[in-house]
Each structure stands twice: as structure tokens, then as C-alpha cells.
Amino acid sequence: MKRWFLVLFVVLCMGWSVVFAEEVTLRILSLPWPQTPVEQRLANEIFTQRTGIKVIIESPPYQFVEYKIREIIDSRSDEYDLFEYDSQWIGEMVLAGGLERLDTPEYLFSPESTINFEKDFIQGFATYIGKFPTLGDDALRPGDAWKKYTDAPLYGLPWTCGGLIFSYRKDLYAEAGIPGPPETWDEMLEYAKKLTVDVDGDGKIDRYGIAWYATRLSDGITQQWLPFHFSFGAELWDPETWTAQGIINSDKAVEALQFFVDFNLKHKVVDPATANWFVDEIMNAATQDKCAMWFTWVSFANVADNPALSKTAGKWGYTVMPGYRDPQTGQIRRASTFGSQGIGINAFSKHKKEAWLYLQWLKSYEIEKMLVDDPTAGYASARTDLLDYQKQFEPKWASIRTIVEGIARDVWTWPEYAELLDIQQRELNLAYIGKKTPKEALDNIALLQQQVLDTSPNNPKNR
Amino acid sequence: MTERIDVLVRRRHREELRFRLLLFVPTIVFLVLMVIFPLVYSVNISFYDYVRGREPRFIGFGNYAQLFRSEQFWLVTWITLRITLTCLAIEMGLGLLLGFALSQKIPGMGFFRLLIFLPMMLAPLVAGLFWRLLLDQTFGLVNFFLERLGFGAVEWLTDPRFAIWGIIITDVWQWTPFVVLLVLAGLGTIPQELQEAAILDRASPWMRFRNIYLPYLRMPILIAVLFRSIDTLKMFDVPYILTGGGPGDLTTTLSLLGYRNLFSFFKVGVASAISWFVVIIVNILVNVLLKVLSPRKKIPREMVDTGL
Predict the structure, then answer these.
(1) Are residues A235 and A347 in the same domain?
(2) Does residue A463 form part of some domain?
(3) Which of B132, B158, B261 to mutate against chain A (most A CBs within 10 Å)?
(4) Which of A147, A173, A250, A323 could make a disulfide contact with A332, Cβ separation 3.0–4.6 Å?
């Protein structure tokens, strides 16, 4: 009798555990990019079907994602298992102990791992987006600089890939007899002058030659100014000595900023309202036929080329940014703003194994290709075996070129970046509207940024 | 026997008192946890060099000293006060005028009242987005009409002279209806016979305003001023969405500065110090306004019993 009770008890326990076994659900904190809903759909249709693991991707507005990540990490919470993070956040996430190291036998070096980090991704790019610390953004530059980080700890894999690209109206170029996209900033200015027009003859400009956003909000004006700054040969800082003074306000930097603000103040080939424009307004200008050229991201380009949303759909051409022609060498130096994100595992997650499974699935050739093929995702892949395939997609390829050719440049990845950026935003915006001269603005940036760098506990001098 | 009754009565009283206190407990616990503790905690934090992710370090009044030495902080304080005082003046004047106009007994006035109260029902963030589009130099309707009327286009959100007016216009548009609402409520309490008697006595409109309407409206106006000044001093949403605080910092308010310090730079100590500075400013301003606007004479009983 006793034996029967025991058997019954064991059977009941097993049944109980089967019925009430915790179903694993991976929660991902993501950025609100167009690829996010596509990733969610693919996860539901493929990953959950194959593994039984549910996936919930949450993407609050961009400005709240970073704070949310910090909250999760600081409270050592397991609310999310994976973070999709912007490139400049990696420092604060790693220093707060919030990202799981991936170059370990549990993950990348496990025999079952389907990811070959060295082979699968564009190396300099993947190194920069996933490893910390790196010396500034040197891993992104052409050449072998990334190789010095071979043994550096890895915390994330590429989630997106690309940089700011140049977009121009092919029909208006043809009408104006312009042979093709500009190679240099001077050519771009010349074309912008030609294409700034009063269409209806009422004395008011109806279409400006070029558009960008120069808002003080977030990193608005910085995104659009960086290509000028870097291509003129200027730098933001010296990451070895943590020096901004004399670097961000160098003669080359002043020359670049002067050239940039002159589009607005002197040549008037850009709408003066751009001083307060951000994403909504630039999209409006591009889709409502208010500009002939603009700097864009792949996901924005998709909207401008969508006939349901845009008057100008199908009329845009895309290429990499024009550059600065060095008067000494005659060579053109290009630069673009880095615009890529990474994905990593929350160090406090209770489902790290499942999260790694998801990462391997998401970064597989099959899924990356599906994301690339979906036009609504606006997605460019960093997988080396998909590079040739992506050459057929015009804006996507231009965006990848900024990475492959080492044109893309980024800001700081240390936790102080937000304060450095805020100083920069304020002063650049004032220079853009002519309230300060470029030299005054840059000198003030250098002064204030240096104070932040000098007092940072992450500065090698203070460590 | 009497002693026994006294004991019973006292026991009953004690039980009632205990029961009343018991009813208070949830409210007290809620207030302590949700209001008093965070307030005291934030005062404490404002004395620390506390950046998220780093060990907090006690620095006394260091955060306050750092703020008071900062040019940016005083610029932002001045901008906040400028926006507050300008908004108050316009909203009060316009609110009074509209209140009087809408109190007239004309057919269809109900519809206009409904229309005028609509902005107040929107979230400030929505109002900000709405005005960001309206005031856009290129796409905006405001400039479209200005140009049709023969005026030039105004760089509402980018010209340092006008950007602050973009914020003020938005706030005035959204919150004047609140003043109108209070004025209408005040006007509704004035006895009809008093107004008729004044007209029969041939009192001029100014005399009627000065001696009948104003005494009755004093309390509604005081309430409007208090609410609007507190709200405007804490203004965050509109500048955040309309201009991002730009150009430069020329439309940055104290709350926006606090937000940047907390949510962008993770400087919890500095953000707390800014918040407490706002609390102090609000208290000073509110007390000054109360002093200026409070009725000097005792309000007649019939005016107090208006429910306001």
C-alpha cells in the first residue's frame, strides 16, 4: 500500500512539474528602429517555433532606452535578458558590470558555438562595437588597428551596421545638368547653390539645395557636423591623454565648422529653420520635395523612397559622403558619422544560456539575410558572407561602404560622453545660428570638455 | 455606578480614537513612503557627489556651490523666471478678457466655451509637438498666415529673440483656458441683483469692474496665479519638445537642466540640488504673490461662501 502511495506521489510531482514548469521567455530591451518589429516577427515565427523559447522585444523611445538600461544594471535586475545598445553606451554598461563577457568557454569558445567572431563579421567594426575599452574609434579606421584588440574582452555583437550617407535627387541633378554626386564638399556647395530654387516665382525659396538637422536636442547637430569635422582633418580629442583642448578647437576644426555654418549663414542654401530641425522635419523636407540633397540613414531613406509616404519616392540616389580635398596632396578625405548598434547579454540575466542561443540564431546567415531582404527593416548586415549580396541594395550598400572603407567615425564611448556631447550640442547650435563665431564656440567646447575630462575618474591620470 | 459609566465612556472614546487613527494609517504610510521619504532622501542626495555607477561622496553644499558658480545655471534661472512672469501676465490678462467675453449671454456661447477649453485637455507634450509644427519657419501655418498678411516669416524656434516666445505662446495657448474657467466660475457667483442695482445706479463699467467684479474675482485670480506660477516654474515638456532648450541654452528651463543632469549625465546629486532650488524659488515666488494678491480687508461673508 505504502509503495503505491509513493508511486502516486512521484507521478503527481512529475505531472506538477511538467504542468507548472516555467516557460522561458527572453525579454529584450531594444532601440525603436524599423528592424525591431521585423526581428520580433522572425523570432515569433522561427526562433520560438524551433526552441519553444518565447521572445518579447520592448523598444521604448530612444531617449529612454539608455536610462532604462542603466536602471536595470544598477539594480542588478534580470528584467531583461538582452540589451540592444547604441555604440557610445558600451563604456558605462561595461564599467557598471552589466554586460556578460562573450569571449569565454560558455559562449564564443564553446564547441557548440555557431558564431566565429573573427570570421563572421567585418572585423574592425565588430571589434569597435563589441569590445571595451578601445582607444577612441581607431578600430574603425582602415588598416589593422583593430588587431591590437584581439585579446580585449568582448561584450557584444553587431546588431546593425552602417553610417550616415549622402542622398541626392537624381531627377533634379539631370535637369540641372549635374553629372553625378559630388566628390568634394566644394562640389556639394556648388550643386546646392544651383539647386536652391524659387519654383513658383513668389520670391521665396521653395526647395533648398541641401537639408540636414542642426537641433540642439539629443545629438542632432553633432551627427551632421561630424563628417565635416573629421574630413577636414580635425579630431574630437586625444584618447590616450584625454585631451580636448587644442584638438577639438584646432585650426582645421575652426575651418570645418566655418564651412559648415556658412551653408546656413553665408550661402543660404539650407533652410534656416534647420537650426531646430530633427528627424521629423528632415523627413518632411525629403518627402515633401523641399530639398535636393540630404544626409541620411538607411532607415530614413526607406521612408523617402516609399511611394505611400513620399512625393519624391524613387527619385533619390545614394552614395558615401563627399570629402575634403587636401590642397597639398590633392587627395579626397571622407568621413561619415558612425550609426551602428550592438547587442549583448545582461550580466544579471537568469536565462543566459537561452540568450546566447538567441544571439547565435539572430546573427546566423539565414536570419541576417531575412532581415536584409525585408525592405521595411531598413537593415544592413555586418556579416562578411552577406557583403557582396548587399551590393544590389543602393542605400544599404552606401551605408555599409562607410564601414568597409573606414569612413565612419564615432564620438566617445566612456560614460562621460553625454556631458561632452551636451556641451558640444549647445555651442555648435549657437555657432550655426551665428550667435557665436566658430572659433568662440569651439574654444568654449574645448574649455568645458577639458574640465569634464580632467575630473573624470576614468581618466588614466585619475584612475 | 457613575464611575463605571465614566470608565466605559472613556474606553469608548479611546476605541474610537484608535479606530480613527487606524483609518489614517494607510494615508500616512502612503505619504511617508511616496512623498516624505523621497523628499528627505533627495535633500540628502543633494549633499553628495553622486553619479550613478560611482560611490557617492559627501560634499556638503558642493553641488549648490557648483551651481551658483555656473553661468549656465543663472542663465537658465533667468530664462525660467522670464517665461514664468511673461506667461503669468499674458494668461491673466487674456483670461480675464476672455472670461468676461464668454460670460455674456449670447446664443451659441456654449460652443465657444467648449472650443476654448480644448487646449487645456491636451498633454503638454502633444501641445508642444503641435506648436513645433505650427511654428516651423518653413512648413508652419503661423508663418504661412503672417506672409499672407504681408509680414515676413519669423524664425520662431531658431532666432534667439523669438525662440522664448515660441515657448510662451504655447503655454499661453494651452493654459489661458484654465484662467478663463476660474474667472467664469467667479463671475457666476456674483449675485444678479447686485449687478442690476449697479446698472440702475448708473455705475460706469469701470466702477462695476472695480467694486463688484474684482472683489468677487480676487480669489479665483489668486488661485489661477498660484497654480500657473507653480506650473510654469516647473515647465519641462514644452521646451523639451519645442526647442530642446535651444538655440544654445536660450530656452532651457531649470527642470530641463535638472532632467539633463539626471537622465543624460546620471548626476543624481546635481539634479537633486537643481530640484530643491526650484522648490525654493517656487516657495518664494508663491509667497510674494500671495502677499501681493491676498485681500487686505476681510472678505465679506457672502463672498467667502462662494465655494471657491
Answers:
(1) no
(2) no
(3) B158
(4) A323
- Check if A271 contacts B (Cβ < 8 Å): yes
Residue B302: strand pairing partners: none
**Alpha-carbon distance B244 to nearest alpha carbon in chain A (angstroms):** 5
A353 touches chain B (CB under 8 A): no
8-state DSSP, A23: P
Q: Are residues B204 and B281 in the same domain?
A: yes
Residues B36, B75 within the same domain: no
Q: What is the pLDDT of residue B307?
A: 46
CB atoms within 10 A of CB B111: 9
Residues A350-380 pLDDT 10s? 999 999 999 999 999 999 999 999 989 999 9
Q: Are strands A293-296 and A25-29 parallel, antiparallel or unpaired?
A: unpaired
Q: Write the pLDDT tens digit of every residue in B48-91.
A: 999 987 889 999 999 999 999 999 999 999 999 999 999 999 99
Rounded to a whole number of angstroms, the distance from the CA of B156 to the nearest CA of chain A is 9
Q: Tally the domains of chain B.
A: 2
Confidence of residue B192 (pLDDT cuts 50, 70, 90): confident
Q: Give the span between the Cα atoms of A274 and A263, in whole angstroms.
A: 11
Contact A429 B266 (CB under 8 A): no
H helix and E strand count, chain B: 15, 2
Chain A residue at shortest CA distance from B266? A67
Structural domain containing residue A197: 165-337+412-454
Same domain, A229 and A320: yes
What's the Cα-to-Cα distance from A200 to each of A178, A218, A284, rounded to whole Å? 22, 36, 20
Rounded to a whole number of angstroms, the distance from the CA of A374 to the nearest CA of chain B is: 31
Q: How many domains does chain A have?
A: 2
Q: Which of A356, A358, A366 is nearest to A110 (CA)?
A: A356
Q: Testing the interface with B: which of A88, A208, A216, A279 to mutate, by most B Cβ within 10 A?
A: A216
Nearest Cα to Cα of residue A190 among A206, A201, A179? A179
Grid coordinates standing for A343?
A: 547587442
Digit-coded pLDDT (tens) for A2-37? 566 655 665 555 555 544 556 899 999 999 999 999
Judging contacts by C-beta atoms under 8 Å, the chain A residues touching residue B253 are none
Q: Give the position of cell 534661472.
A: B77
Looking at the structure, tell me whether residues B147 and B251 fall in a common domain: yes
CB A156 within 8 A of CB A130: yes
**The domain spanning residue A103 has which CATH number?**
3.40.190.10
Interface check for A437 against chain B (CB to CB < 8 A): the answer is no
Q: Return the beta strands (E) in A170-306 as ranges.
A: 293-296
Q: Do B155 and A427 touch (CB under 8 A)?
A: no
Range(s) of the domain holding residue B85? 70-304
Is B248 in Cβ contact with A276 (below 8 Å)? no
Name every residue in B having a CB less than 8 A away from some CB of A: 52-54, 136-139, 147, 155, 157-160, 163, 240, 243-249, 260, 263-266
